[in-house]
Amino acid sequence: MATKKLKTLRPFDRLRVDGELSRNRRQAQGLYPERSRRIKRGVFITFEGIEGCGKSTHSKLLSEYLENKGYPCVHTREPGGTKLGEAVRKVLLDSPEIRISDLAELFLFEACRAQIVKEIIRPALDRGRIVISDRFSDATFSYQGYGGRVDLKAIRTLDRVATAGVVPDLTMLLDIDTSEGLRRARKKGIDRMEKKDLSYHRRVRAGYLRLSKQYPGRIKRVKVSGRIPEVQAKIRREVEIVLRKFERPR
Ligand SMILES: Nc1ncnc2c1ncn2[C@@H]1O[C@H](COP(=O)(O)OP(=O)(O)O)[C@@H](O)[C@H]1O
Ligand SMILES: [Mg+2]
Fold this sequence. Notes:
By secondary structure, the protein is α/β, with parallel strands linked by helices. The chain has a single domain, classed as P-loop containing nucleotide triphosphate hydrolases (Rossmann fold). Helices cover 53% and strands 11% of the residues. It has 10 helices and 5 strands; from the N terminus they run ααβαβααβααβααβα. The protein has helices spanning 2-7, 22-28, 55-68, 83-94, 102-126, 137-147, 152-163, 178-186, 198-214, 228-246; strands spanning 43-48, 73-77, 130-134, 170-175, 219-223. The protein has a 5-stranded parallel β-sheet, with helices on both faces. Helix 6 (137-147) packs antiparallel against helix 7. The longest helix has 25 residues, at 102-126. The radius of gyration is 17 Å and the shape is globular. Magnesium ion is lined by residues 55-56, 134.
């Protein structure tokens, strides 16, 4: 039954990150049973950075590129990616009438993370997929921690529980000037997070930079100054270095 449905999917369904995540969910549930012949185990890649830095653009391009090279990928986003996540995403981003403190925000993001790890990320990694997530734990440290000034130790404790030990193998930090990022993001409409003032977003960016210095092996910073293909080429270079580590011997 599942295979019949799959035939009707359009080529871009696997990149659709809104709503149902149809193909991704089917992949995670194992209805695409083929394990990658190229890598020994699942690989988790996350994209981070302030609003408008290009996470959605580059994470989708990377997913498409890797799929074409024969690596089965699952693309997802936070908050979102599951039914619970998409519902909470609406509360977090598009409900200006609801007041949410920085601490409450932390719990909502972590609730979404616990769900997506259990429902999508962990099962996909166990099946040897490359999971590409548009945001993950680093966003919580940067936004609620550095931006919202919630105690970092509390975040660490909560995040460890929510992720059940899932840590990215590689994190691409797309770094852009704060005002330029916000300008790009605002072209597409303004959500609740984007409404926070410039100094908040500056702290978020500084937080990300601090994290990249703290975890230089995992977090690779790419400056978003050139055009999309140039930035994407830099990302692919970093990804290939990591994938080489997990390549199966031929
Ligand atoms: N070098 C670049 N890398 C990424 N995006 C770029 C670049 N140059 C211009 N842009 C534009 O900036 C915007 C980035 O938006 P998006 O990918 O949605 O960012 P995010 O998901 O991080 O908020 C897009 O409209 C994209 O076309
Ligand atoms: Mg985005």
